[in-house]
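Incident log entry.

Two folding requests arrived from the same account within the same minute. Monitoring flagged them as a possible duplicate submission, but the sequences differ. Recording both here for audit purposes.

Request one:
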Amino acid sequence: MLFSEKIKQLRISSGKRQKDLAKAIGVDVPTYSRYEHGDRRPKREQVLRLARIFKSNPDELIAMWLADEAYARMASDKMAVHAAVLLQEMLAGNGSIAPADILTIEGNNDGQKATAVRDMVARLGQSAMPHLVQGDAAQVMQHIEDSSIDCIVTTPPYWRRRSQGTESITATTAHEFVNELLQAMEQAQRVLKPQGSLWLNMGDDTTGGFVQGIPWRVILAMLDQQGWHLVNEVVWNKITTSPQGSNDHLRKVHEFMFHLVKQDDFYYNDEELRHTYALIMRNEDKGRDKGKKVVKQHYLQPDAVQGLVPSDVWTIGVQRSGIAHYCVAPDKLYRLPIVATCPRDGIVLDPYCGTGTACKIAYEMDRRSIGIDINPDYIRQAQASIEQKPLSLF
């Protein structure tokens, strides 16, 4: 059954009118009618909304939507059967790429050496299904083409604070940690498009009662040694953290999210950012205020011309995971950078993807993405978590 036939069948069985569905997914009636006739294709977000309305399995409906697109593209081609076999083989790998698959051997009279083939982005195609790679961030990024990534958003391993499992950075001193991370950021600068953005989320470390200034050591080295430009240092107010028993310094409830670019002309969707930021912060307020009478915090400053301007303090609660002693980056913390600095046809990269938050959000927003992590357990967790679920800010 074709996707167009399926949604028509679901509409009839649910007793709804085309007019009702068109309004629900934000299109006019003629456009929706074309969806049912197969003349036009809805967006992924619209398919997910239809699944909610019909109380249908979203995975099944999205799969049919994708299959319909593939069929339409190759049905009339004489190589369609062969292409279908290749597609089945590719999908059997769950979208993951092994680093060994993107090496080649260059020979000369003195011997042979392995060099990186920079074709990872070319392998993505047009599918929004994330590509997850297990390996060291700096090494795997060598396989990504120059100036091919629109937005990098990532949380590197915390120095001395993430000892559970395998980690990409194993430095024992702050100086070594900075140098190791700079190697990855050098690759990030190479693969980022001239108008692209890097968002680097970093927490600090307290040793012997003294703050080490790790985030600022990294950022200042990136500015001075690599020529990055710092657009904003966002304070992520986590609201709550694990209990801290010290009686000689304040409880730490924040981290930094640094926005860096390569040049002064960079892509920035201010309108979409303002809209998303307002929704997220309003929802965070509701979550904290439920059942309480509190004074509202003012996150937005009015601007007479363009509306509400997001601040550089983001109050977003932490998000726990099923992995012991491991916290994932909150969806909302990563959604804002992607909304602001990744165009709709863009590519997101997370070189320390952990359990895949950035790739999951990119997938929901119909952006392509690459996730890298050295820990195979995290990659498996990421693959399992990236499901076709309805987009929700609430």
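Request two (distinct sequence, not a duplicate):
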Amino acid sequence: VFILVERAKTFEQHAVIYLAIIVTMIISYLILKYALKLARLLGATGINVMSRIMGLILTAIAVQFILNGLTEAYKAAVAS
């Protein structure tokens, strides 16, 4: 979020970032508020599947961060 806000130049870009934060907060609140109902609805198998999917997404994000860092380091090394 800090990087996105730093790179945002127009009011519209800032508005989209803050709107995304608010939407994320609302979704997080609703998920936490209805966690017991969601757990009953999904069951043990559904929760296990969701945990694996979220782990996969987290892994993909981590790999992307690493690749971005390596790319920037390579660009900096080539430029100097």
